[in-house]
Amino acid sequence: MSVFAIARLELLIARRNMWVATSVILMSLFTIVLTLAGGAPTGTLGVDPLIVAVSSITTLSVYLVPLIGLLLSFDAIAGETERGTLALSLTYPLSRAEILIGKFLAHFAVLAFAVAVGLALTATLTVWQHGAANLSFAPLLRLFFTSLALGSAFLGMGYTVSSLVRQPSVASGIVIVIWLVCVVLYDIGLLGALVTDNGGYFTKTVFPWLLVANPADAFRLINMPDTSVTVLTSGLSAAGSVSGISGQLASLFGWPLLALFCAWRALRKVEP
Amino acid sequence: MTTLAVENVRKNYGTLETVSNVSLSIEAGERVALLGHNGAGKTTLIRMILGLTPVASGTIKVLGSNPGSRHSRASIGFLPESVAFHGALTGREQLRHFARLKSVPVHVADDLLDRVGLSNAADRKIRTYSKGMRQRIGLAQALLGQPKLALLDEPTSGLDPISRHEFYDIVEELAQSGTAILLSSHALTELETRTDRIAIMSQGKLVADNSLVRLRQNAGLPIRVNVTTTAENVDLVAERLGGKRINGCSILLTCQQDEKISKLSQITAFGEIIKDVDVTPGSLEELYRHYSVTESEGK
Hints:
The complex is a heterodimer.
Chain A: H1 2-16, H2 19-42, H3 49-73, H4 78-83, H5 85-90, H6 96-130, H7 138-164, H8 168-197, H9 201-213, H10 215-223, H11 233-269
Chain B: E1 4-13, E2 16-26, E3 31-35, H1 42-50, E4 57-62, H2 70-74, E5 76-79, H3 91-101, H4 106-115, H5 131-143, E6 149-153, H6 161-176, E7 180-185, E8 197-202, E9 205-210, H7 212-219, E10 223-229, H8 234-241, E11 244-247, E12 250-255, H9 260-268, E13 274-280, H10 284-297
Parallel strand pairs in B: 3-7, 3-8, 5-6, 6-7
Antiparallel strand pairs in B: 1-2, 1-4, 8-9, 10-12, 10-13, 11-12
Helix pairs in contact in B: 3-4, 4-5, 7-10
């Protein structure tokens, strides 16, 4: 029951700190804009307007979902260590794993709520503009569940950092670096390597695995199988075919487990 | 069963021994004050009892269980020296959360808010609380679920005199219901009447552990007798008693416990010219200094 007590308190704090409102507003604003703007150029052509919207939102979610995940989690342990509430909580009959799981449940719920509201708005707007006929909602559901997996991976990374450092300010700096590396620098680095390699050994064998190893890129690959809308056109199509959907799923759902496991190991070492 | 049994416990950080060979036991219903200057090892000892800091050698048992075990944690109430609860929560929400963690019905938390005098502020955000009010939340959470052992680290720091008085009333009630209490403090005077036993730590060692009366006897601190007389007779009285004049009409003299009665009868023999007599035994401050200084000198 301690897990639920922790989750309940964290949800309350997330609501008071406006984290819930901020995440929901952020997701809603971006999805509304992308749905409306994304729908405009297709006009009455045969392309499913929902697919177009999902593609735009995927590109956005790659940046936004990890950011929300990290912002929700960086203070989770370091903040409590600094305030002294972690030491006090640990004198109660509950384990460190329960603390971690409780916090994760709460932050996962906030994230799921924000993504759900955003995607529900997308669906509603699309149906309102184009009617419900001929729409396929499968990509939207896929986007929802993969967003949660992506967010969970970054929640886990945030907890790990938060357990390893003692000050929340340091933790916030480190998570911003993690975010930059995972969603921006990693891809730029790969792109640079691709250009240098010019279609050689690296491009064909190493690159696809390196790409899918990053949960953000795995997320992009799963949600944008149509290579015509991708930025790294040649690279992504090659990656998609080599690693396959199982590789992408393994990366996207393996990362949250790995990150949470690391967080638990790090939290066990904390002497509050 | 002994509520708290600490035996030959040591703790060192590198070569620095912060707790060395401390043994201490507390029975149910006993109130023990743990004194010591900053860095004497009080907080480290408390953290080891809680299982937050591992013990280097020796054993600690809380009701027969190892520190940090679920059983021992479920039977301990802990008030940390400094804790900042999340400012966005109300006092009631924070305390109800702790009640859930301890599997105590939430209405107990509400009752405790009344008990510590926070019922009016219970639904305000903790960030609006004064230091004393935060301390009361801390105390209330330590009382949840009738702990068998209460560990109170500097519980009265930041409290005004009336709040301190109320605090010790609560501690007394807790002890009467069978809770063993270990409280650490700098504020010495308030402990004199409010504790059963005093343990003094100095440089990681337990240098004294006894009732106040026994500590006084063993220390052999002089008793101060302040005699007030009339201005004309002050020199005469001072000469006869062998004391020191401290102003126009009073004399200060010191004696040991066994000479006290004979000294007093000598004074009363003067009759009318004595206006007042004040007898002060060695204060806790002197006692504390005596034990912590002699021990560190004898090292």
